[in-house]
């Protein structure tokens, strides 16, 4: 059929995966609330009128992007729940795996860390993120109960500061330059578990 | 003169200090780029046409708000440059004072931590923030040279992770609830300098 021949070849890079990848980049650059469908159309190289062929809607893209980060955390949470051994070792493993998920899924985790709860989608993501935080909090508590933490440390503050340090990696880590994720994880674990000071 | 009598009393809370305080709240809530002069007028309770009596301009407010955070860091940097003694102790002092500045000037530091360099004002603020980061980096290097750090720690990564942990406090610290700033600083210093693990 002539129609088939005259139809331009499908543009490369507009499968759902690459749409998501472009969208998360625009959300991180302009802020989700500051991103219009027109901005997404421009970034994808399609016209404003064609954008809905490629993008189901801004909020669905946000939900998918946040799930990409949260699914990584859920996998490592399941791994942590299945693990045995001293809580301090399981905590160290969770910290290392969190750094890995953060660096492997950097733009998605960056987006997750900026969510403020402005919509049902954002609030659902914050609830899933809080479940992960609670798991880490339980590991810190268990480590304290097992006598593995230095006395005088407040487990709730330790949990917040530890995950603050992990999350802050998203602000400066660039996979193409600088230290690989395993070195970043080693530095963090070394600093936080054994301390900066020479014993 | 009749005119004086009929002029309504000046509204309370519209001195430059309270304008800045309201503006930084709106910037943090909506994002600077997402804040319009109309949003600021609404938050100040003035009409859209009256806003320029109260607000010099959005970018000047941003510059003043960022200076409020940066001046706090400059003061503690001057203090650190004047201090003597082992670098590890001077570093600990800088960390404690950074937590104090962050908690005392929380909305201003929160705004500073979200700056991405989208304007000349933002780039100038990032340059001042980088000066402070460089000072901390020098202290970590000195502490390493003095043999006070555990061997094997990368000073550049330590600097980033340490200040990531400090900055993350802005995400959850609420002065009216929870741990006071000195306890947060104690927990951070305890965790990072001596380590989580019981020796």
From TrEMBL, chains A, B:
<dbReference type="InterPro" id="IPR050109">
    <property type="entry name" value="HTH-type_TetR-like_transc_reg"/>
</dbReference>
<dbReference type="InterPro" id="IPR001647">
    <property type="entry name" value="HTH_TetR"/>
</dbReference>
<feature type="DNA-binding region" description="H-T-H motif">
    <location>
        <begin position="36"/>
        <end position="55"/>
    </location>
</feature>
<dbReference type="Pfam" id="PF00440">
    <property type="entry name" value="TetR_N"/>
</dbReference>
<dbReference type="Pfam" id="PF17932">
    <property type="entry name" value="TetR_C_24"/>
</dbReference>
<protein>
    <submittedName>
        <fullName>Biofilm operon icaADBC HTH-type negative transcriptional regulator IcaR</fullName>
    </submittedName>
</protein>
<keyword id="KW-0804">Transcription</keyword>
<dbReference type="InterPro" id="IPR041490">
    <property type="entry name" value="KstR2_TetR_C"/>
</dbReference>
<dbReference type="InterPro" id="IPR036271">
    <property type="entry name" value="Tet_transcr_reg_TetR-rel_C_sf"/>
</dbReference>
<dbReference type="InterPro" id="IPR009057">
    <property type="entry name" value="Homeodomain-like_sf"/>
</dbReference>
<keyword id="KW-0805">Transcription regulation</keyword>
<keyword id="KW-0238">DNA-binding</keyword>
<feature type="domain" description="HTH tetR-type">
    <location>
        <begin position="13"/>
        <end position="73"/>
    </location>
</feature>
